[in-house]
User: Fold this.
Amino acid sequence: MNISNKTGYLHQQLKLFYLSDQRDWKCPYHYHDFDKITIFLQGSVTYEIEGKSYVLQPYDIVIVRAGQMHRPIISGSAVYERIIAYIAPSFFMYCKKRNCDVSTVFTQNTSHVLRQPQEMGSIFGTTCRLRQAFSQKENDCMLLQETIFLEFMIFLSQAVQQKWLGSVKTGPQNEKIQTIIAYINQNLTTPLTVSSLAVRFYISPDYLMHLFKKETGYSIAQYITTKRLVLARSLIEKSIPLTTVCYDSGFKNYSTFYRAWKHFFHTSPSKGSWKIEEPGFSE
Assistant:
Protein backbone atom coordinates (compact mmCIF):
# COMPACT_ATOMS: atom_id res chain seq x y z
CA MET A 1 0.00 0.00 0.00
CA ASN A 2 1.21 3.50 -0.82
CA ILE A 3 2.11 5.13 2.48
CA SER A 4 0.21 8.31 1.60
CA ASN A 5 -2.94 6.90 0.04
CA LYS A 6 -6.07 8.99 -0.11
CA THR A 7 -8.82 7.13 1.73
CA GLY A 8 -12.43 7.38 2.85
CA TYR A 9 -15.43 8.55 0.90
CA LEU A 10 -17.86 11.45 1.03
CA HIS A 11 -20.90 11.97 -1.19
CA GLN A 12 -22.79 14.30 1.12
CA GLN A 13 -22.26 17.36 3.31
CA LEU A 14 -21.58 15.45 6.50
CA LYS A 15 -20.95 11.84 7.46
CA LEU A 16 -20.60 10.65 11.05
CA PHE A 17 -19.05 7.44 12.37
CA TYR A 18 -19.11 6.02 15.88
CA LEU A 19 -16.41 3.38 16.46
CA SER A 20 -15.40 1.37 19.52
CA ASP A 21 -12.94 -1.49 19.20
CA GLN A 22 -9.83 -3.11 20.65
CA ARG A 23 -6.65 -3.59 18.63
CA ASP A 24 -2.97 -2.78 18.64
CA TRP A 25 -2.56 -0.99 15.30
CA LYS A 26 -0.42 1.57 13.51
CA CYS A 27 -2.62 2.99 10.76
CA PRO A 28 -0.81 3.83 7.49
CA TYR A 29 -0.26 7.51 6.68
CA HIS A 30 -3.10 8.80 4.54
CA TYR A 31 -5.05 11.95 3.67
CA HIS A 32 -8.57 12.96 2.69
CA ASP A 33 -9.80 15.68 0.36
CA PHE A 34 -12.35 16.83 2.93
CA ASP A 35 -12.01 18.14 6.49
CA LYS A 36 -12.27 15.74 9.42
CA ILE A 37 -12.89 15.96 13.16
CA THR A 38 -12.33 13.12 15.60
CA ILE A 39 -13.77 13.30 19.11
CA PHE A 40 -11.56 10.95 21.11
CA LEU A 41 -13.51 9.28 23.93
CA GLN A 42 -11.20 6.62 25.37
CA GLY A 43 -8.19 4.45 24.58
CA SER A 44 -4.41 4.57 24.33
CA VAL A 45 -3.77 6.57 21.17
CA THR A 46 -1.06 8.79 19.72
CA TYR A 47 -2.14 10.84 16.71
CA GLU A 48 0.41 11.93 14.09
CA ILE A 49 -0.50 14.88 11.86
CA GLU A 50 1.83 16.64 9.42
CA GLY A 51 4.94 15.30 11.17
CA LYS A 52 3.69 16.24 14.66
CA SER A 53 2.76 13.73 17.36
CA TYR A 54 0.01 14.13 19.99
CA VAL A 55 -0.78 11.83 22.93
CA LEU A 56 -4.56 11.95 23.32
CA GLN A 57 -6.65 12.22 26.47
CA PRO A 58 -10.40 11.50 26.70
CA TYR A 59 -12.56 14.15 25.01
CA ASP A 60 -9.68 15.64 23.03
CA ILE A 61 -10.81 17.02 19.66
CA VAL A 62 -8.58 16.13 16.71
CA ILE A 63 -8.81 18.54 13.77
CA VAL A 64 -7.47 17.45 10.38
CA ARG A 65 -7.79 19.71 7.35
CA ALA A 66 -8.20 18.44 3.80
CA GLY A 67 -4.92 17.19 2.38
CA GLN A 68 -3.14 16.86 5.74
CA MET A 69 -1.18 13.66 6.25
CA HIS A 70 -2.22 11.85 9.42
CA ARG A 71 -2.55 8.53 11.20
CA PRO A 72 -3.55 7.23 14.64
CA ILE A 73 -1.27 4.81 16.48
CA ILE A 74 -3.31 2.58 18.79
CA SER A 75 -1.39 0.73 21.49
CA GLY A 76 -2.29 -1.77 24.18
CA SER A 77 -5.55 -3.62 24.72
CA ALA A 78 -7.70 -0.72 25.93
CA VAL A 79 -10.96 0.02 24.11
CA TYR A 80 -10.49 2.73 21.46
CA GLU A 81 -13.72 4.74 21.29
CA ARG A 82 -14.24 7.77 19.05
CA ILE A 83 -16.69 9.75 16.95
CA ILE A 84 -15.43 10.78 13.52
CA ALA A 85 -16.94 13.40 11.23
CA TYR A 86 -16.20 13.76 7.51
CA ILE A 87 -17.08 17.33 6.53
CA ALA A 88 -17.47 18.60 2.95
CA PRO A 89 -17.11 22.28 1.95
CA SER A 90 -20.86 22.39 1.27
CA PHE A 91 -21.50 21.84 5.00
CA PHE A 92 -19.67 25.06 5.81
CA MET A 93 -21.51 26.90 3.04
CA TYR A 94 -24.84 25.61 4.39
CA CYS A 95 -23.98 27.03 7.83
CA LYS A 96 -22.71 30.35 6.44
CA LYS A 97 -26.01 30.93 4.64
CA ARG A 98 -27.61 30.81 8.08
CA ASN A 99 -25.14 33.33 9.51
CA CYS A 100 -23.16 30.69 11.36
CA ASP A 101 -19.55 30.29 10.23
CA VAL A 102 -18.37 27.05 11.82
CA SER A 103 -15.43 26.86 9.38
CA THR A 104 -13.49 28.96 11.92
CA VAL A 105 -12.78 25.65 13.69
CA PHE A 106 -10.38 24.97 10.82
CA THR A 107 -9.41 28.46 9.66
CA GLN A 108 -8.75 30.19 12.99
CA ASN A 109 -7.33 27.27 14.93
CA THR A 110 -3.55 26.76 14.98
CA SER A 111 -3.47 23.44 16.82
CA HIS A 112 -4.34 19.99 15.48
CA VAL A 113 -5.63 18.82 18.85
CA LEU A 114 -7.82 20.82 21.26
CA ARG A 115 -8.34 19.82 24.88
CA GLN A 116 -11.72 20.56 26.39
CA PRO A 117 -12.22 20.65 30.17
CA GLN A 118 -14.13 17.62 31.42
CA GLU A 119 -16.79 19.59 33.23
CA MET A 120 -20.34 20.45 32.34
CA GLY A 121 -20.29 23.17 29.74
CA SER A 122 -21.59 23.72 26.24
CA ILE A 123 -18.99 21.64 24.40
CA PHE A 124 -18.54 18.85 26.95
CA GLY A 125 -22.29 18.52 27.52
CA THR A 126 -22.93 18.35 23.77
CA THR A 127 -20.16 15.77 23.36
CA CYS A 128 -21.81 13.57 25.98
CA ARG A 129 -25.22 13.91 24.31
CA LEU A 130 -23.70 13.06 20.93
CA ARG A 131 -22.09 9.96 22.43
CA GLN A 132 -25.44 8.96 23.91
CA ALA A 133 -27.23 9.54 20.60
CA PHE A 134 -25.13 6.84 18.96
CA SER A 135 -26.40 4.31 21.50
CA GLN A 136 -30.01 4.85 20.42
CA LYS A 137 -31.54 2.59 17.80
CA GLU A 138 -34.66 4.56 16.86
CA ASN A 139 -35.30 5.26 13.19
CA ASP A 140 -34.59 8.98 13.58
CA CYS A 141 -31.24 8.52 15.35
CA MET A 142 -29.17 9.65 12.32
CA LEU A 143 -30.99 12.97 12.20
CA LEU A 144 -30.53 13.33 15.95
CA GLN A 145 -26.80 12.62 15.65
CA GLU A 146 -26.33 15.16 12.86
CA THR A 147 -28.36 17.79 14.73
CA ILE A 148 -26.33 17.38 17.91
CA PHE A 149 -23.10 17.43 15.90
CA LEU A 150 -24.13 20.75 14.33
CA GLU A 151 -24.72 22.09 17.84
CA PHE A 152 -21.29 20.75 18.82
CA MET A 153 -19.69 22.58 15.88
CA ILE A 154 -21.38 25.84 16.78
CA PHE A 155 -20.13 25.66 20.38
CA LEU A 156 -16.68 24.54 19.22
CA SER A 157 -16.44 27.44 16.78
CA GLN A 158 -17.34 29.90 19.53
CA ALA A 159 -14.76 28.34 21.85
CA VAL A 160 -12.05 28.55 19.18
CA GLN A 161 -12.81 32.21 18.51
CA GLN A 162 -12.80 33.03 22.22
CA LYS A 163 -9.73 30.83 22.88
CA TRP A 164 -11.53 28.88 25.59
CA LEU A 165 -9.88 25.55 24.75
CA GLY A 166 -6.34 24.41 25.43
CA SER A 167 -3.93 23.27 22.72
CA VAL A 168 -2.26 19.92 23.18
CA LYS A 169 1.54 20.04 23.10
CA THR A 170 3.32 17.94 20.54
CA GLY A 171 5.67 15.08 21.30
CA PRO A 172 9.18 14.69 19.83
CA GLN A 173 9.46 16.02 16.28
CA ASN A 174 12.14 16.97 13.79
CA GLU A 175 12.41 20.76 13.93
CA LYS A 176 14.09 21.06 10.53
CA ILE A 177 11.28 19.15 8.80
CA GLN A 178 8.70 21.28 10.61
CA THR A 179 10.48 24.40 9.36
CA ILE A 180 10.51 23.02 5.80
CA ILE A 181 6.80 22.12 6.01
CA ALA A 182 5.99 25.65 7.16
CA TYR A 183 8.08 27.12 4.33
CA ILE A 184 6.36 24.95 1.71
CA ASN A 185 2.89 25.94 2.92
CA GLN A 186 3.83 29.63 2.88
CA ASN A 187 5.31 29.46 -0.62
CA LEU A 188 3.03 27.13 -2.60
CA THR A 189 2.74 29.58 -5.51
CA THR A 190 6.51 29.77 -6.01
CA PRO A 191 8.77 27.15 -7.65
CA LEU A 192 9.51 24.40 -5.11
CA THR A 193 11.92 21.55 -5.82
CA VAL A 194 13.94 19.15 -3.74
CA SER A 195 17.17 20.78 -4.86
CA SER A 196 16.01 24.32 -4.05
CA LEU A 197 14.76 23.25 -0.62
CA ALA A 198 18.00 21.38 0.06
CA VAL A 199 20.04 24.48 -0.74
CA ARG A 200 17.83 26.76 1.34
CA PHE A 201 17.91 24.52 4.41
CA TYR A 202 21.52 23.32 4.15
CA ILE A 203 20.78 19.63 3.75
CA SER A 204 21.66 17.12 1.05
CA PRO A 205 18.82 16.32 -1.41
CA ASP A 206 18.97 12.58 -0.72
CA TYR A 207 18.89 13.01 3.04
CA LEU A 208 16.10 15.59 2.74
CA MET A 209 13.92 13.17 0.75
CA HIS A 210 14.62 10.34 3.18
CA LEU A 211 13.97 12.45 6.28
CA PHE A 212 10.82 14.10 4.87
CA LYS A 213 9.27 10.74 3.98
CA LYS A 214 10.21 9.30 7.36
CA GLU A 215 8.71 12.21 9.31
CA THR A 216 5.58 12.86 7.24
CA GLY A 217 4.78 9.74 5.22
CA TYR A 218 4.85 11.82 2.01
CA SER A 219 7.43 12.31 -0.65
CA ILE A 220 8.15 16.02 -1.04
CA ALA A 221 6.56 16.06 -4.50
CA GLN A 222 3.39 14.35 -3.21
CA TYR A 223 3.15 16.79 -0.34
CA ILE A 224 3.54 19.90 -2.51
CA THR A 225 1.05 18.68 -5.12
CA THR A 226 -1.54 17.80 -2.48
CA LYS A 227 -1.25 21.21 -0.84
CA ARG A 228 -1.49 23.01 -4.18
CA LEU A 229 -4.64 21.09 -5.10
CA VAL A 230 -6.29 21.96 -1.80
CA LEU A 231 -5.42 25.61 -2.48
CA ALA A 232 -6.77 25.28 -6.03
CA ARG A 233 -10.07 23.92 -4.78
CA SER A 234 -10.52 26.89 -2.44
CA LEU A 235 -9.93 29.25 -5.39
CA ILE A 236 -12.41 27.38 -7.60
CA GLU A 237 -15.03 27.70 -4.87
CA LYS A 238 -14.58 31.49 -5.19
CA SER A 239 -15.50 31.23 -8.91
CA ILE A 240 -12.01 32.18 -10.08
CA PRO A 241 -11.33 31.10 -13.72
CA LEU A 242 -9.55 27.76 -14.01
CA THR A 243 -6.55 29.14 -15.89
CA THR A 244 -6.00 31.67 -13.13
CA VAL A 245 -6.49 28.96 -10.50
CA CYS A 246 -3.83 26.84 -12.18
CA TYR A 247 -1.10 29.45 -11.88
CA ASP A 248 -2.30 30.99 -8.60
CA SER A 249 -1.99 27.61 -6.90
CA GLY A 250 1.59 27.07 -8.08
CA PHE A 251 1.26 24.79 -11.14
CA LYS A 252 3.53 25.55 -14.09
CA ASN A 253 0.99 24.70 -16.79
CA TYR A 254 -2.64 23.72 -17.17
CA SER A 255 -2.03 20.15 -18.35
CA THR A 256 -0.04 19.34 -15.19
CA PHE A 257 -2.75 20.94 -13.07
CA TYR A 258 -5.52 19.04 -14.88
CA ARG A 259 -3.83 15.63 -14.53
CA ALA A 260 -3.11 16.20 -10.83
CA TRP A 261 -6.68 17.34 -10.16
CA LYS A 262 -8.14 14.38 -12.06
CA HIS A 263 -5.99 11.93 -10.09
CA PHE A 264 -6.81 13.54 -6.73
CA PHE A 265 -10.52 14.33 -7.11
CA HIS A 266 -11.52 11.72 -9.74
CA THR A 267 -13.27 14.36 -11.84
CA SER A 268 -12.40 17.35 -13.98
CA PRO A 269 -11.74 20.72 -12.30
CA SER A 270 -14.58 22.30 -14.27
CA LYS A 271 -17.03 20.25 -12.19
CA GLY A 272 -15.54 21.55 -8.96
CA SER A 273 -16.13 18.28 -7.13
CA TRP A 274 -14.50 17.24 -3.88
CA LYS A 275 -16.08 13.79 -3.71
CA ILE A 276 -13.98 10.69 -3.31
CA GLU A 277 -15.19 7.86 -5.47
CA GLU A 278 -13.63 4.80 -3.87
CA PRO A 279 -15.63 3.04 -1.14
CA GLY A 280 -14.40 2.44 2.36
CA PHE A 281 -13.56 4.17 5.59
CA SER A 282 -10.26 5.12 7.17
CA GLU A 283 -9.20 6.83 10.35
User: Anything to note?
Assistant: Residues 12 and 203 are 44 Å apart (CA to CA). The chain has ten helices and twelve strands.
